[in-house]
Amino acid sequence: MHRGGNSKKRYWVGDLSEKGVRKCIESFSAATSPEMPPKIFYDIFFLQKPMEDKIREIHPDCIFYDMYFPWTVDIAEELKISRILFNQSNYTYNSILHNLKVYKPQEKLELNFHRSFLVHGLPDKRVFKLSQLTDDLRKATDDEKTSFDALLDQVRDSEVRSYDIVQDIFYEPEPAYADYY
């Protein structure tokens, strides 16, 4: 991953207001209603072009990025550099999500919101109801998906195309899931 010489960290924070980003919701922690997170994602995409331009200009050895910048997979491939994903979720969540996407037990049965089903292949038994899943996992067809669901699909695709993933969790709290994932 290193081309030689001294490794340097470079951070870039642009003026968000000049790109039309609403100052009152620059982070998810500032979101006070269910309507605000989609606006934050919309604002994030205002930053794509200036960030791509800056990445091309400095041509780093690696991009370490947040999961909600899935477009960085394309710029990293263009520059032939590694991308490392920073994922704020834990191993248990990611393992369950992976198996729901791969095995799709929620789609195989005639389920209603109150009927339970087993998520197969995990280190321990995990049973869910359809009502416990997020909207994007409950929707059977692409016609039912929203633009937010499409973003989540891009995020998951970029994870697969990453060089590696850094999880925001220690090994000790969930060793079986860390080994599994």
From TrEMBL:
<dbReference type="GO" id="GO:0035251">
    <property type="term" value="F:UDP-glucosyltransferase activity"/>
</dbReference>
<protein>
    <submittedName>
        <fullName>Uncharacterized protein</fullName>
    </submittedName>
</protein>
<comment type="similarity">
    <text>Belongs to the UDP-glycosyltransferase family.</text>
</comment>
